[in-house]
Amino acid sequence: MESKLPHLGTSIFTYMTGLANQHNALNLSQGFPEFDAPVLLKQRLAHYSEQGFNQYSPSSGIAPLQKQISALIKRKYGLDIEAADTVTVTSGATEALFVAIQAITRPGDEIIIFDPAYDSYEPAIELAGGRAVHIALQAPDYSVNWQQVAEAVNDKTRAIIINSPHNPSAKTLKANDFKALKALLIRHDLLLISDEVYEHIAFDDTPHISVLNDAELFARAFVISSFGKTFHCTGWKMGYCIAPKLLTAEFRKIHQYVTFSSFTPAQLALADMLAEQGEHVDELSGFYQQKRDVLVDALQGSRFTILPSEGTYFLLLDYSEISQLDDMAFCEYLVKEVGVAAIPLSVFYQKAPNDKVIRLCFAKKDETLVEAADKLCTL
Predict the structure, then answer these.
(1) How confident is the model at residue 30 (pLDDT cuts 50, 70, 90)?
(2) From CA 293, how far away is CA 34, in angstroms rounded?
(3) Which long-range contacts (CB under 8 A, 24 or more apart) does 14-23 make?
(4) 180-187 contacts, C-beta under 8 A, 24 or more apart
(5) Where, residue-wise, is CATH 3.90.1150.10 in the chain?
(6) Kind plus residue range of the DSSP H or E element containing 340
(7) What fold, for 12-37+280-376?
(8) CA geometry: angle at 150 spanning 145 and 156, to 5°?
(9) How far apart are CA 179 and CA 202, in angstroms?
(10) Distance (Å, whole) CA 287 – CA 283
(11) 151-166: per-residue pLDDT in tens?
């Protein structure tokens, strides 16, 4: 049988985690927390399951959770939305990204994405019959050249996908970026998919700028977020998409045939968590900034060049003073010989640059971060 995605194999995350397990290495590669979800959230999950809330929920999500999401958006971004018409609960942010891409992409359409890019974007575009147009961001600042973006737009361009705070660079888009983006979208009547799964993890007292902050941007956008990132429960695969009424209607047409609905007890538990311990969201940036600082401080004696982490729970390291190996070979060396698993940045590019940069995940216990840094400081 001819493959629909012939160039894809095992993901780098599966490969590096498997290698880490094989060599008993500290796994700072795959982006999942080493610590557990909040106690209240787990208790409510058990409660609702035991009480028999184990059947299908409405395809768009249970009303209490939709309302809590809309209240969070109002509190964080000042935007009033009608939850029933604009909020769709999904089985993880990756499902939401897939569905949004399928909803807008027609055969022959081009979707602009920025490398290094999360690895689910391009396969979803290709499966919809479109083509991903890659614009490479360069180390060490990974800033967007909006003139280059403008030159990439043509009559086939359908949409742009942005991701801020950005995985894997840990950079954030600034106000001037959104000004340039909005002008481009309006000039060419383009749609926008905004991947904001790390929206509540922005550092150094610099608030995350959301597409939801701007009514004109939101009018043509799908905004996607992740409960897994926010509440340390990536294995639950719970996310959501917020979009204007007309775009939401198209989104839901496809969503109903992908997962139909998402895990009912988890939706009820998440609604309670947002209602009763909403401060968890507000404390998340400080929580992860402390972990970032633990890792950065522990690496000060190393030969790595530490790149700024403005958000997410990732940190980039330049190893050019340590080794001339390419980044994949260097990461394999780290696992096998040093005992630390990282991710090579080249896998997030269509055309990999010659940068010698790797990504570490610091969503780990402090002792894990210090132990990993001690190993890396031996190089």
Answers:
(1) confident
(2) 17
(3) 16/331, 16/335, 16/341, 16/342, 16/343, 17/341, 19/332, 19/335, 19/336, 19/341, 20/335, 20/341, 23/335, 23/336, 23/339
(4) 180/144, 180/146, 180/149, 181/146, 181/217, 182/214, 182/216, 182/217, 184/146, 184/149, 184/150, 184/153, 184/160, 185/160, 185/217, 185/220, 186/216
(5) 12-37+280-376
(6) strand 340-341
(7) Aspartate Aminotransferase, domain 1 (3.90.1150)
(8) 135
(9) 20
(10) 6
(11) 999 999 999 999 999 9
CATH number for the domain formed by residue range(s) 39-277: 3.40.640.10
Helix (H) or strand (E) holding 271: helix 264-276
Q: Is residue 122 within a helix (H) or strand (E), and if so which, with residue range?
A: helix 121-127
Residue written as token pair 């775009």? 247
> What is the Cα gyration radius of the chain?
20
Distance, CA of 101 to CA of 149 (rounded, Å): 19
Instruction: Return the number of other C-beta atoms located less than 10 Å from residue 68's C-beta.
Output: 21
Residue type, 65: L
Among 360, 368, 363, smallest CA distance to 315 is for 360
Residue closest to 294 by CA, chosen among 197, 363, 195, 229: 363
pLDDT in tens, 45-66: 999 999 999 999 999 999 999 9
Interatomic CA distance for residues 356 and 242, integer angstroms? 37
User: What is the C-alpha to C-alpha distance for residues 379 and 376, in angstroms, rounded to an integer?
Assistant: 6
Burial call 251-283: b when 16+ CB within 10 Å, e when fewer: bbeebeeebebbbbbbbbbbbbbbeeeeebbee
Per residue in 192-240, pLDDT tens?
999 999 999 999 998 899 999 999 999 999 999 999 999 999 999 999 9
pTM for this predicted structure: 0.96
Rounded to an integer, the average pLDDT of 301-310 is 97
Q: Give which of 157, 150, 170, 148 is closest to 130, Cα–Cα.
A: 157
Cβ(268)–Cβ(53) below 8 Å: yes
CATH 3.40.640.10 domain locations along the chain = 39-277
Cα–Cα distances (Å) from 121 to 16, 131, 149, 185, 342, in that order, read 20, 10, 17, 19, 22
